[in-house]
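Hi R.,

As promised, here are both runs. First protein below:
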Amino acid sequence: MAFDHWGPQDLAAPAKRQLPEVPVQRGMVLEDVQSGWVGEVTRVEKSGGMHIVSLEDRRGKTKSFQLGFGFLLEGQAVRLLPPAPRPASGASTGRTASGSVKVQGQRARVAMSSRIWVEGKHDAELVEKVWGDDLRVEGIVVEPLHGVDDLKSAIAAFSPGPTRRLGILVDHLVPGSKESRIAAEAMTVPGAAGNVLIVGHPYVDVWQAIRPKVLGIEQWPAVPRGLDWKTGILRAFGWPHETAEDVGLGWQRLLGAVRSYADLEASLLGRVEEVIDFLTAQ
């Protein structure tokens, strides 16, 4: 007899058991226990430092849930884990700024014909700082557009196709905005459907995708109507703001505060990951 088991015990408590741990995969059919929602996994993305899975039901409606406990797979309770890392040659150790497994000893791939387009230089620098390691492994080049007013013509000149895809990140892409109308018109270009993905964040400028607490502030300053937004931000910070050089130096100070994906807003993280998945899908 094991006398060390004697003592106060909760005899009504169920025995603890270890749930199977299953890496999530697209195409899985899962049930969220709490809501009863049943759907097929259509997307997995990192958002705000956590992994989110999207489940599409038989009616085509989609809901998103945080990975972890609370799912049934083929009627069995499981703990959902992030997707297994893509196979890659070379040893892997550590993490990149985007949170991905870092690949050691692998040279950057020759650039593929597909591209990521962003609105400007600052957008490109931010994407490079956080996702640069991942993009070099995949052979994806980020190019600044310097504005999206002529996006339709730019896409037509690119001639998108199944082996020549575009992922485009647009500032202030919200319903009813000028940018949303430009994006809708751009998708009418022949070859764009299925080969071009236009996504965006809700911010006036990509600067706002940096989480305020990273900069030691509660929220981004409000800029008076009619004042250039970047100029107004720098002035509110008490930084030089009179010239283009001042703006460039101010941006470098902001960019220097970013160390990893955890320093960025979820609304940008998810969209960039979506674009990368779109361009690397087989």
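And here is the second one, sequence first, then its structure tokens:
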Amino acid sequence: MIALLLALGSSLAYGCADFLGGLGARRAHVLRTVVVAAPASLVVELLLWPVLGASFGTGALAWGAASGVASAAAFALLYRTLAIGPMNVLSPVTALVSAILPVGVGLLQGERLGLAGLLGLPLALVAVVLVSAGHGAGAARPSRTALVLALGAGAAIALQLVFLHQAPSDSGVAPLIIGRAVSSAVTLAAAGLMFRRLGPAKPAYGVSAAAGVLDSVANLLFLLAARGGDLAVVAVVTALYPAGTVLLARGVLAERVHRGQFVGLGTAAVAVGLLALT
């Protein structure tokens, strides 16, 4: 139950971070947004070091670095995807891909679910799609480029979560610190190489930094949840993060909330309840 609550918290933080990141990327080039967000995340994780501890063993270094590379790709692809929009169509694509891979890894590693889990897992995947579905024929249609970016973002998020899960359970926040240091270095290097192509627009510093802080909180909650529960369950609950993105898009950007999305929220509640019984 604690792992499930942590996963729900991670989902909420990811949804808010994604919304703010996508909003920031509408104002300036996505790399300008990421260059602010990634270091802000690193600061949060460094502040957590004295509180939660960190052991920088070989496993933590290797898996943390791998998660950092995936995180850098996820940051750039996701924020660019959400900047192109529409958020409420592309979010479920990204979320579904980000859930399926970790679920598969967890099951391949020998995780077993009871009857409630076997019912709740696919129901949660359905909820992921419903909760951020488009609005029918009158809705804005995503471009082919946006869909490809959404698929890539989902795969990068999935790899980041899997890599974090593989890190030693006694390594504290070391994988997060190493991962964020690597992702910050990668994004800073990319921004330096592409400086002339970034345009004159300055990033929304406050929004971008807030996105980074929330992403760091989400990563921490996911790591704690994955250490205390099954990856298959934690990953699919975390993948419900489009709910936060869509509701913020509705409140801030006035994107219409479809009836099916409300059905999705109800479906998600039922799914989480079933998963809690596992």
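A quick note on the second one: The chain has a mean pLDDT of 80. Let me know what you think.

Best,
J.
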